[in-house]
Amino acid sequence: MLVLVAVHALTAVIAPALVRLWGRHALYVVALVPGATLAWALTHTGKVRSGEPVVETLTWVPQLDLELALRMGTLSWLMVVLVGGVGALVLAYSARYFRSDDPGLGRFVAVFVAFAGAMLGLVVSDDLLLLYVFWELTTVFSYLLIGYDPAKRASRRAAMQALLVTTLGGLAMLAGFVMLGQHAGSYRWSVVAENLPGGGYLAVALVLILLGALSKSAIFPFSFWLPGAMAAPTPVSAYLHAAAMVKAGVFLVALMGPAVAEVTPWRPVLLVGGLITMFLGGWSALRQVDLKLLLAYGTVSQLGLLMVVLGAGTRDAALAGVAMVLAHALFKATLFLTVGIIDHATGTRDLRELSGVGRRAPALAVVAGLAAASMAGLPPMAGFVAKEAAVEALLHGGTADLAVLAGVIFGSVLTVAYTLRYLWGAFADKPGVEPTTVRPVSWAILTPAAVLAVAGVAVGVLAPAVDRLLAPYADLYRSAEPGYHLALWHGLTPALGLSVLAVAGGAGLFDLMRRERVRATMRLPFDGAVAYKKCINAIDRLAVELTGRTQRGSLPFYLGVILVVMVVLPGGALLAGSPWPQRFHLWDTPLQGVAAAMVVIAAVMAARALRRLTAMILVGVAGYGIALMFVLHGAPDLALTQFLVETVTIVMFVLVLRRLPAKFSERPIRSSRRGRVAIGVAVGAVTAGMAYVAAGARQAVPISVDFPDGAVSYGGGKNVVNVTLVDIRAWDTMGEIAVLVVAATGVASLIFRHARDLGRRGDIPGDGPTEYNRPRWLTTGATARSQSVILQVITRLLFHAIVLFSIYLLFSGHNAPGGGFAAGLVAGLALAVRYLAGGRTELNGAAPVDAGVVLGAGLFVAVGTGVAAMLLGGEFLQSALLDFHLPVLGHIHFVTSAFFDVGVYLIVVGLVLDILRSLGAEMDRQHETEGDEVREKELV
Amino acid sequence: MSPNLTYVIVVGVLVAAGVTLLLERSLTRVLMGVILLGNGANLLLLTGGRAGAPPIVGSAPQEEMSDPLPQAMILTAIVITLGMTAFLLALAYRSWHLNGHDEVQDDVEDRRIMDLADRDEVPDDDVDGDDDEESPTTDERQLSTTAKGGRAG
User: Fold this and answer.
1) ipTM over 0.95
2) What's the pLDDT band for A632 if we cut at 50, 70, 90?
3) How far apart are the CA of A579 and the nearest CA of chain B, in angstroms?
4) CA angle centred on A177, ends A171 and A179, rounded to 5°
5) Are A47 and A4 in contact (CB under 8 A)?
6) Cβ–Cβ < 8 Å for B3, B51
7) Which domains, from first to last, does chain B contain?
8) Does the pLDDT at position A525 exceed 80?
9) Contact criterion met (CB < 8 Å) for A724 and B69
10) Nearest to A486 by CA among A391, A593, A611
11) Where would you tag: which of A222, A254, A841, B131 has the fewest CB atoms within 10 A of its CB?
12) Boundaries of each Na+/H+ antiporter MnhB subunit-related protein domain copy (chain A) (predicted)?
């Protein structure tokens, strides 16, 4: 069984290719797959007839106790035969229904086969969760098939409606399954059925499961989606919405019925729901003028009847129910296929326009007639046998059963009436209507329908054989009396009399209905579709209101909400957590107070500044003040880095701010400023409070007390902070430099407009050094229009010294303040100075490399250091100490983590170079080109 | 460990100024807010460690050294802030270059939903949408102007 499901899936994958290769003829090949399913099921007939299930189990996830448990009993066998047989025939039909150049054909075939596979999996699943998975798969594939023509609005809407309704039911059903499975400790239905809970728990679970079954099988109040699903191509309607998918709910009811039929909500829900559906569906079918819709409402009505019969919960009714499932699949699929043929041959499905089709296509009329006879319950058809059995089963029940029987008979009257309406509408000669032109119907498209119709006759004629096949299912209901047997002739029984009554009543009703006036008065008082529409509308409205309230689309608003929450919750906790620590000191040295005052004043003024440049300078002052505080704290590395970063930041700001307006744009709303300040002050107060409490609450010895010893003995360096960066917490640093590379790349991609400019060397034709204008040492470039010559010369003199100093910082950093970050920033500043003095030509002269290459090399060196340590048997980024003697330099003490620091150095240099190239050189170039364009325009 | 009140105050002021700027719409101001906030956060980390002599072995007895761990963390944070500053600056420039200003705009899509909510309507989703889907560009442009005018506060 699993293999068959897998073959379906595989075929679905390759089907589009087959269609491309062979056009619509590929469908015959694909039809072999469901055909094989049918053949496989037939080979197991003997085993099934003896009431022995075919079981197959594959362990899936043993840790979770999940397995693919498949089980084919009598009911499943019947469904497999239908799914495979009808599937193969409908595919063969489709091979003539579609044209080879239909653009959606490949997709259609793929989804169709996938659906057949899912349906097959559904009916043979023993595990309820597996059943649910296949259940939802059929829903999804049905969605895709209904929405076959995505350009049509009706088709999209119908697909969405079917999806929503059946998925909603499916979810409820899953909840029911979980309730049962958790109680039984297993999800295998064969186990669960033996270990059912009791009382309200079971009732709730069953109602949830019924929601799934009823919505899938279009039972009231979920009936409305099925007629809508007729937007799908006719083969889809014939298979999914008559023979296969809608039967899934019926199948589930039939599967569970023997175990739960006696539980309170089961029978009433099914009987009431089924009867209402039967009436509404039949009634609506009588009003339709589209043949396909007529059949669709007929299907709804029949599904109601199936639910009633299978829900009755007796042995004989169950036998009648499965016989009816078989009969219905055969005749309804046939009827849909004939409607498709009529549609193709005449170009219409409107019964008001069709006339004389029966005389022009007699073979078609015969096939449709056979199926219609089965639907109306005429002997010797399968439909007759099944209906007789159902009437007989209900006839021997109590009062409630007799009431149900009356309903079923009335339903039959409706069925006969709409069957006649179908036959009359499709094939009759109508006075006053011009005879329709009918294109010849090829035998290739008619054969599949004919096979199904003949099968319907065969099932009727061979009723005793069918009885032996299906009886094992019915016998699952324990019954004292010897059971009923399916047969064509039981003698002159009351059931036969009722059948005659139904046919006569139906004929009468049909005759009445032909009068236009009567039909007009038959309006349905209510419709599930209206409720659906209202629900969907209400959900949409709720979503819009909710989103409109919460998604303001304003970044300050979102930030404000987050910050206010921060003030209220952690701030509230802070207040609640009093008393606060009593011990504190004002400062470590009074100088800290001076630096602090500088920071505070600069920060407050920066927040109030109206000019960009002022704000920038004040932010810089605050940063330098922080650096000063670092010095006083005893953190020279931090102070050094902070000074350098502030300086680079100022350079960056200057580069960008020269292009932006001097003042911030005017704020139209003044009041919101107060709100911002209020939030800012509150957040600041809460943060300060947290700093105070957290620092004061500290009891434990810091982890870093061992750092100094470790730094010397393992890291081989005296500067604890630097050793921490490149050794103890080297992973952090690794992550951080990766962030720097990403940021640099982001900057470049924001500024450079074209990918071809991204060679961040910034070479401009004519600017680069050539044979003739190769710049000589200390000569300034000819392009230097506005730069100071003296400055350029001085920076060139200084440049190498600064770079040398940066390299010194890099290597001394292990034992003294310095290290890769600071050194890289120093080198970057050297480049910045060159750029500021001489523009981009000067920058290219100073660093004739692509910034991306520097960044990449840095990352390569850093990662390479770590990997090398790993290859040498250590851990990633573990450092080793090397001591050796060189002739001139004397004793060398070297730590391998210095290489890592070199990588950091390169990345920082690369970052600064990247910033200078992007925010500096490229922006210059863009500005100049734009200026040229403006000048050109002026000239024109 | 007793908290250093000066640090606590400076942290508070830096965060307050930073957040105030962060809530602005001008990207340059937001950026300055990020820098101030970053400095405040760095100082907050430093508050957690002891002050003292530079943590360089041999220059001072170990008991007198400042705590090196927060310092290592802050050092990486400083450089990350540099990368972030560069990125935001590039963003501000790009915004100015494309739109003529460097202000953070309201999300147009969100504005549409808010307008729908105000009018008590439902969205035209795909399912119920028209078959000939027009491009909604004109509509969006109008909305973005309203957003610019009405929401810049």
Assistant:
1) no
2) very high
3) 15
4) 110
5) no
6) no
7) 5-99 (1.10.287), 108-151 (no CATH)
8) no
9) yes
10) A391
11) B131
12) 790-913
Contacting residues of B for A629, CB less than 8 Å apart: 7, 10, 43, 46
**Region at A80 (left for phi over 0; alpha for psi -120 to 50; beta for the rest):** alpha
B150 touching A (Cβ < 8 Å):
no
Report yes or no: A925 at the B interface, CB cutoff 8 Å. no
Which of A626, A671, A712, A713 is the best residue to mutate to test the B interface, defined by the most B CB atoms within 10 Å of its own CB? A626
Q: What is the mean pLDDT of residues A906-929?
A: 88
Q: Is B18 on the interface with A (CB under 8 A)?
A: yes
> How far apart, in Å, are the Cα atoms of A321 and each of A383, A733, A834?
11, 72, 92
Of B6, B78, B110, the CB nearest to A641: B78
CB contact under 8 A, B153 and A668: yes
- The answer to whether the CB atoms of B117 and A549 lie below 8 A apart is yes
Tokens of A825: 């920033």
Are the Cβ atoms of A586 and B80 closer than 8 angstroms? no
A545 and B CB contact within 8 Å: yes
Q: Are B20 and A615 in contact (CB under 8 A)?
A: no
pLDDT value of position A665:
67
Residue A493: the pLDDT is 83
Residue with tokens 């010897």: A482
Residues 6+ apart with CB under 8 A from A151: B131
pLDDT class of B146 with cuts at 50, 70, 90: very low
Measured over the CA atoms of residue A394, residue A398, residue A402 and residue A403, the dihedral's sign is negative
Largest alpha-carbon pair distance within chain B? 81
Whether B86 sits inside 8 A of A630 (CB atoms) is no
DSSP state of A351: T
**Among A residues 283-342, those touching chain B with beta carbons less than 8 Å apart:** none
pLDDT tens per residue, range A675-711 = 889 999 999 999 999 988 888 887 788 888 888 888 8
Question: What pLDDT was estimated at residue A760?
Answer: 46
Binning pLDDT at 50, 70 and 90, where does residue B141 land?
A: very low
Chain A (525-544) residues lying within 8 Å, Cβ to Cβ, of chain B? 537, 540-541, 544
pLDDT in the model for residue A1: 80
B12 and A739 within 8 Å at the Cβ level: the answer is no
Averaged pLDDT, A257-286: 89
Percent of chain A scoring above 90 in pLDDT: 36
Distance separating alpha carbons of residues A523 and A457, to the nearest angstrom: 36
Name the token pair of B9.
């105050």
Residue B127 tokens read as: 């399912």
Q: Where are the alpha helices (DSSP H) in A288-314?
A: 291-311
SS (H, E, C) A629-690: HHHHHCCHHHHHHHHHHHHHHHHHHHHHHCCCCCECCCCCCCHHHHHHHHHHHHHHHHHHHH
Report whether A232 contacts A148 (CB < 8 A): yes
Tell me if B12 and A688 make a contact (CB, 8 A cut-off).
yes
Shortest Cα distance, chain A CAs vs residue B140, angstroms: 14
Token output for A39 = 């053949």
